[in-house]
Each structure stands twice: as structure tokens, then as C-alpha cells.
Amino acid sequence: MQGTISCTRHYPMIPAAESLRPLPLRTQGDGESIRTLVEENAVMVIGRKGCCMCLVVKRLLFGLGVNPAVLEIDEMKEVEVMSELEKIGVEGGRETEMLPAVYIGGALFGGLDRVMATHISGELVPILKEVGALWL
After folding, report:
1. In this structure, what DSSP letter does residue 97 have?
2. Dist CA 27 CA 31 (whole Å)
3. CB-based contact 26:33 (threshold 8 Å)
4. Please, what is the Cα angle at 66 between 64 and 71, to 5 degrees?
5. For an engineered disulfide with 123, which of 17, 74, 112, 118 has Cβ 3.0 to 4.6 Å away?
6. pLDDT tens digits, 4-48
7. Would the CA dihedral through 30, 36, 39, 42 be positive or negative?
8. Residue 31: how many CB atoms within 10 A of its CB?
């Protein structure tokens, strides 16, 4: 009679909460730090720390195979970051920013509602491919 051999592999698992580590933020008052982060990443999600809508956007993008840069804002820096986002938005011809703010290809794409609407209509994946956030 043949015996069975058990083979187990142990992979270092990173909890989901840790894999969504937010980026460090050093604001300079002129919007350059956030502008640089937005321009250097194909997809960037900016939201309040612990915001459920931000989590939905991140999970949707992860589900599509996109690994967005995430900037979570705590309450103490929210006013400063929002003013920097407004400076970026004014230069881009946009009005006031809402959180979560999703930037695709260095430009403001919109919030949760716009991301969900374009996903449902089937337009989100081609946009993500166009900016290099998806390869397939």
C-alpha cells in the first residue's frame, strides 16, 4: 500500500489592511507634493483615513487588476490637503474637489460615482489600459 505524502507551503501573507498602505505625505503648502504624487502614478486615490467610499474605490480597482497609489488623509491634515487639491484643480480647470478623489493619468477623473458609472458602462477598463495601469 502506498502512503500519502503531504506537502505544505507557507507563503508570507500580508493582511489586506497592510497591503493598502497609504503613501507618506509631506505637504509644502504650494501643492507640489500632491501634484508630484498624482503625476508619477497612473492611478491615484486620495481619501480620508477609514472612509468606506475610499475603500470601495480601492477594492474595485484592485479587482480589475490595478494597483493604485493611495493617499489617506487624517483629520489634522485634511484642510491643508484639500487646499492643495483645489490649487491643482483650479490649474486644471476643475472646481472644488470631493473625497475620495481618483486621478487617472495625472488628471482628476472624479469620485466614487464617476468611477462606478464608467465601470458599469464598460468604459473604465479601456481608460485604465490607455494610461498604462492595466496591461491585459
Report:
1. -
2. 7
3. yes
4. 125
5. 118
6. 554 444 434 444 444 444 554 444 444 567 888 888 899 999 988
7. negative
8. 20
Mean pLDDT of 85-103: 70
At CB < 8 A and 24+ separation, what contacts does 104-111 make?
A: 104/42, 104/43, 104/128, 104/131, 104/133, 105/42, 105/130, 105/131, 106/38, 106/39, 111/53
Q: What is the dihedral of CA 72, 102, 118, 122, to 10 degrees?
A: -80
Distances in Å between the alpha carbon of 114 and those of 20, 30, 47?
22, 27, 15
How would you write 16-38 as a 3-class SS string?
A: HHHHCCCCCCCCCCCCHHHHHHH
Identify residue 136 by its one-letter amino acid code: L
The type of residue at 116 is M
Q: Is the pTM of this model over 0.85?
A: no
